[in-house]
């Protein structure tokens, strides 16, 4: 291309008087279009004041096609005829010149040769036409030596075309389609190299393929970074899939071998595997023995590892011991004396020349060292470098957090389980109303132990309370809430409240607990400490079962003939909702009926139909003649979900009945004179029962309770004796006023009756009834 300078002349009034061919090429305006126009008409923006003063600088010109072009311009004044053109004098105008770059074709050649990537051009038969400096340096030759040579001939010293250039080059020449790909050569043992290669056809004016251009970028660093990132992503996906320390160690080994290590081991401090972490605070890490949790090896590196379960210490000065002591990664080569000592004393018997590099990384989580992971590069594998150290530290950090989570979960689970077991009834109290059997299975899910509980509470009059409940949530808070509710239920049961009233008081308690543990209005806390509960009272004399539920599944009843049905009880709202009443239900049961109380973990589960599970429970219970323990096992085997994500509590109770031969009842006239006759009738009945030895105490108790009822109560008055495991005396009247135990003064004529009853009997109390109250006292029997 012929060089044409860009020059224009401008008169002193700013009009264009001359326009060169070079100016036309830069701006697009011909001389006829430019001459005679004002310079300001050709500007895209006004020049800076400094440019005008210096007559030099960058000026933005409006190109003929409308685009803005920034040009470096320089102006010189034109002299007048008398030669005057100095500052402040008259001058004829200006000569403006544009500083043009060098010849574009020459710049293109320089850019090609000086490109920092390998670039070359081939004809359609894969022969070199051009090669830049990087290509020549890579192939250790000159462009003149390469020009005209067939590409495969230049690779005879290479066994194969490692990056697949020849095949792709032929494809581009034949199809005319550009190709872009990344090729990786080599494996983990010899540090893979990666190249990103771009190929595109070079076409002539007619569109035919005249040549193929190739640009190759060394992308090894980017490839290794992607590999490391992929490893971290894979580790994030695979590490910590379970809250199991051993499984987490295996997952770490899978992430390291064989991708980054010929062999690897994971050793944990012994105290990590226990539920008691007091050892963690009593001695530094180096004084604790380590236990081999996982190992892995590829190929010949298998001899570098020792069996699982080995426990001991690393010798001082070895890479693992240093990593534990210093709390940082330690990278050592075969020349390090600590590596040789580690190989000699580890029991592997591996020669040091098989080890290229050893990398020991402490497993640290939340400021605590839990163990160490050791990576070994052996055989043809390259030694580890700082990038490998950073990757190993990141993987070890993630694994350590997972191990610590598993450790903390195990500790909390053990604590919650111990707390729950301490609160659940171990040996159920003796009573004659029902025969009971129970099962409790804690959750095996990662959520932790739940708050399921059950209880059997003896009540007055040979009655018994059956309780089962479930606290929302898992872990120690749920177990603690469960303990509070257990205590509350037992306290309210001692007051002998009906089931619906007891649940009302329990509901108030849960609401107060939620308000004190949660937000000010208690809304947040209710959601966290809410619970369900079923409370039932069985009376063996009347053979009636009274019950009420707070958001709990209804119990099942199996009659002696094998018929099984669910009792129609209104579930009511869960405890903690507040403001809603609970409804009580009552049903009469034949002797030998089996009542099944359970928590929802028995019939509910992931992807499980509750109706189908309830039907399975009904079928499993339809064998009332079986022993209760066997029936419990049968129910769990046939009904419990395979994946148990919640606690399961099951309480079975077979009813008994106290017949007329063990119960005696008398209507008492509201006349103090009738007390003597009542005493005589009681003595006679005790003789029939063979309880003559208890007659004296019973006579005193009956006399005091009946006299108090006549004096302070309201008719009708009734006396009932029940012979069970204890001799129970009950006096009922229509007054709702409860008696109070008081201590009489020395000269008081009365006030000693209840005190005497309390001293002569095992326990006594009163309960409200629908028609008034009942005062009762239990007297132990000789065979009790």
Uncertain stretches:
519-528, 744-751
- Work out the helix count: 20
Characterize the main sheet: 6 strands, antiparallel
Mean pLDDT: 81
Q: Nearest-angstrom radius of gyration?
A: 48 Å
Strand order of the largest sheet: 13-12-11-16-15-14
**How many runs of DSSP E, i.e. beta strands?**
31
Proportion of residues in helical segments: 25-40%
Percentage of residues in DSSP E strands:
25-35%
Question: Whole-Å distance between the termini?
Answer: 124 Å
Shape: elongated
The secondary-structure class comes to: alpha+beta
Give the gist of this structure.
By secondary structure, the protein is an alpha+beta fold.
Secondary structure topology:
Blueprint: E1 6-11, E2 16-19, H1 21-27, H2 31-34, H3 49-54, E3 56-62, E4 68-78, E5 93-98, H4 104-114, E6 118-122, E7 128-131, H5 133-139, H6 143-146, H7 165-175, E8 179-185, E9 193-203, E10 209-218, H8 220-238, H9 245-256, E11 263-269, E12 290-297, E13 311-312, H10 319-326, E14 330-332, H11 337-345, E15 355-365, E16 368-378, H12 386-423, E17 434-441, E18 451-458, E19 464-471, H13 476-494, H14 499-517, H15 523-529, E20 531-539, E21 544-550, E22 556-558, E23 564-566, E24 584-588, E25 594-598, H16 610-621, H17 628-639, E26 648-655, E27 663-668, H18 675-688, H19 695-712, E28 717-723, E29 726-733, H20 753-760, E30 763-769, E31 772-780
Antiparallel strand pairs: 1-2, 1-5, 3-4, 4-5, 6-7, 6-10, 8-9, 9-10, 11-12, 11-16, 12-13, 14-15, 15-16, 17-26, 18-19, 19-20, 20-21, 21-24, 22-23, 22-25, 25-26, 27-28, 28-29, 29-31, 30-31
């Amino acid at each position: 291309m012929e060089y044409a300078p860009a020059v224009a002349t401008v008169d002193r009034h700013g009009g264009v008087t001359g326009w060169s061919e070079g100016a036309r090429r830069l701006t697009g305006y011909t001389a006829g279009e430019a001459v005679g126009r004002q310079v300001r008409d050709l500007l895209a923006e006004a020049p800076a004041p400094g440019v005008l003063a210096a007559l030099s600088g960058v000026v933005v010109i409006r190109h003929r096609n409308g685009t803005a072009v920034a040009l470096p311009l320089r102006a010189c004044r034109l002299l007048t005829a008398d030669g005057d053109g100095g500052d402040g004098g008259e001058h004829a105008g200006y000569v403006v010149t544009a500083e043009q770059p060098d010849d574009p074709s020459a710049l293109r050649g320089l850019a090609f040769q000086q490109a920092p990537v390998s670039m070359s051009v081939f004809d359609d038969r894969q022969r070199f036409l051009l090669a830049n400096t990087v290509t020549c340096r890579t192939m250790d030759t000159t462009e003149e030596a390469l020009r005209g040579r067939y590409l495969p001939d230049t690779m005879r010293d290479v066994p194969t075309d490692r990056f697949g250039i020849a095949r792709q080059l032929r494809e581009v020449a034949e199809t005319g389609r550009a190709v872009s790909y990344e090729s990786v050569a080599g494996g983990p043992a010899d540090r893979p190299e990666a190249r990103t290669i771009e190929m595109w056809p070079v076409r002539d004016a007619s569109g035919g393929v005249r040549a193929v251009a190739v640009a190759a970028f060394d992308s090894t660093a980017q490839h290794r970074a992607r590999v490391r990132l992929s490893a971290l992503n894979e580790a994030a996906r695979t590490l910590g899939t379970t809250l199991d320390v051993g499984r987490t160690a295996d997952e770490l080994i899978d992430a390291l071998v064989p991708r980054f290590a010929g062999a690897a081991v994971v050793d944990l401090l012994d105290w990590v595997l226990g539920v008691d972490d007091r050892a963690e605070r009593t001695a530094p890490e180096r004084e604790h023995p380590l236990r081999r949790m996982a190992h892995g090896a590829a190929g010949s590196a298998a001899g570098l590892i020792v069996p699982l379960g080995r426990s001991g210490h690393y010798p001082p000065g070895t890479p693992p011991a240093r990593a534990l002591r210093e709390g940082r990664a330690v990278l050592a080569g075969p020349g390090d004396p600590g590596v040789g000592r580690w190989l000699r004393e580890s029991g592997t018997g591996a020669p040091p020349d098989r080890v290229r590099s050893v990398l020991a990384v402490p497993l640290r989580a939340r400021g605590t060292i839990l163990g160490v992971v050791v990576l070994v590069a052996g055989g043809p594998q390259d030694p580890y470098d700082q990038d490998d150290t950073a990757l190993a530290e990141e993987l070890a950090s993630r694994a350590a957090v997972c191990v610590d989570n598993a450790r903390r979960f195990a500790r909390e689970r053990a604590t919650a389980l111990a707390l729950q077991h301490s609160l659940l009834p171990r040996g159920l109290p003796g009573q004659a109303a029902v025969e009971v059997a129970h099962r409790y299975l804690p959750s095996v899910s990662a959520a932790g132990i739940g708050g399921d509980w059950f209880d059997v509470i003896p009540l007055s009059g040979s009655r018994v309370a059956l309780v089962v409940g479930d606290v929302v949530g898992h872990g120690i808070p749920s177990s603690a809430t469960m303990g509070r509710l257990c205590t509350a239920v037992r306290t309210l049961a001692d007051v002998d409240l009906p089931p619906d009233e007891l649940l009302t008081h329990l509901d108030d308690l849960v609401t107060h607990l939620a308000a004190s543990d949660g937000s000010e209005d208690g809304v947040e806390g209710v959601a966290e400490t809410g619970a369900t509960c079923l409370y039932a009272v069985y009376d063996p004399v009347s053979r009636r079962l009274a019950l009420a539920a707070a958001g709990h599944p209804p119990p099942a009843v199996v009659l002696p003939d094998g018929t099984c049905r669910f009792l129609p009880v209104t579930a009511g709202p869960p405890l903690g909702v507040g403001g809603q009443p609970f409804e009580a239900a009552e049903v009469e049961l034949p002797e030998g009926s089996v009542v099944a109380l359970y928590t929802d973990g028995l019939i509910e589960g992931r992807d499980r139909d509750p109706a189908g599970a309830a039907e399975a429970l009904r079928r499993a219970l339809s064998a009332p003649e079986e022993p209760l323990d066997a029936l419990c096992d049968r129910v769990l085997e046939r009904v419990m979900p395979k994946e148990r994500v919640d606690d399961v509590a099951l309480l079975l109770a077979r009813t008994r009945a106290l017949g007329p031969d063990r119960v005696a009842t008398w209507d008492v006239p509201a006349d103090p004179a009738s007390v003597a006759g009542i005493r005589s009738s009681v003595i006679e009945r005790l003789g029939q029962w063979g309880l003559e030895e208890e007659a004296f105490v019973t006579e005193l108790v009956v006399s005091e309770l009946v006299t108090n009822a006549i004096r302070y109560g309201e008719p009708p008055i009734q006396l009932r004796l029940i012979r069970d495991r204890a001799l129970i005396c009950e006096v009922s009247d229509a007054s709702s006023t409860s008696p109070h135990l008081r201590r009489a003064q020395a000269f008081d004529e009365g006030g000693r009756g209840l005190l005497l009853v309390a001293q002569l009997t095992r326990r006594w109390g009163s309960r409200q009834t629908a028609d008034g109250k009942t005062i009762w006292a239990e007297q132990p029997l000789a065979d009790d």
